[in-house]
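Take a sample.
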Amino acid sequence: QVQLVESGGGLVQPGGSLRLSCVASGSISAISTMYWYRQAPGEQRELVAQITRGGSTNYADSVKGRFTITRDDAKNSVYLQMNSLKPEDTAVYYCKYQLYSRGWSDYWGQGTQVTVSS
């Protein structure tokens, strides 16, 4: 059984920073690409950032220059450093891994709430 758990969300003022973490546990043989998505109320889930096993990254235009995705394969973890936060960054943030357990599949975390408000 594979489980992904996010942490680090919370309430922050505009211009502030947060660092999200996601760690995977269970029977994992390999992890390929790791992702962060977010979903605001009434909106579709959108891709925020991704990082490949080789370290290549890609970001949504709305977060470029403000967010940084990193990974630590020894800890089965992915991180999202979020700086210069704006009210429009308010959403539930989810991590997703492409990983090999009994085969290659996508696994999602349960989400962590990020609220940017004064």
In short: The first strand starts at residue 3 and ends at 7. The CA atoms of residues 16 and 85 lie 5 Å apart.
